[in-house]
Amino acid sequence: MSNTFSLSKAYEKHFKIGAAVSHLNIDSYTDVLAQHFSSLTTENELKYQDTEPEEGRFTFEHADTIFNVARRLGIKVRAHAPVWHWATGEWMFKDGDRPAAPELIYERIEAHTKALCERYNEDVYAWDAVNEAIRDDAPGDGDESGIYRSSEYFKLCGPGFIEAAFKAMDKYSPKAQLFYNDYNECVPEKRERIVRLIRDLREKGCRIDGFGMQQHHFAAPRLRRDQALYRGLCGTGSAAARYRAGCFPYGRDQSRRDTSEARRPRL
Q1: What is the reported pLDDT for 181?
Q2: Second label for 124, Cα 20 to 30 Å away, from 16, 45, 202, 210?
Q3: Distance CA 165, CA 108 (A)
């Protein structure tokens, strides 16, 4: 038996140790990934802009690079994150020269989900089905526009696109865990909006197994805020996954430059 320390082995009875990886450099990190990690998360490779830049034209080359390494190392993938407003092509929201009707957008989400799941289901243990659909501030009178981000998805569909995404993912990937993913989850006002979303989805019959917390801290996190978040999630029946945790010693702009220029996995 090897005496070499492994982070993932040390915690395997409790939780997975994950790394966010990019197709640009994953081959440079295979040794450390094999030794210390039990989960891989795609950075951008499963988002619409990478996998379906035009309707019906699928481009899986970047995602395949990550999945090929994952298979070789025997590591399952946490698949992030198909439905995200920043990485969806304009074709999703158009019907010729007109805005697309909600029903057409739901059909496109389902077709895209089917294609992803048919290709990668055997290697995926969890999907971040929807990413960052909740707004950071809360203007208005407490109606839906004060809860959800004013994305093209929301402008055309209201919150229905979130329900459509989870139901499609449940249909085509019934064995994987399904997560909603977001950031600033420890800010009390946003936390309440996230908890409300999860409760609403469950009331509508959606399977949602947990909430992925991005945990992008730019100062030391406050334990009491984390505890309040966990208590709120317990009331929804959903699990919490501490996802992509990181604490940066610089300001927000500097930390983003430092991590994006090298395109390094946050190990």
Answers
A1: 94
A2: 202
A3: 10
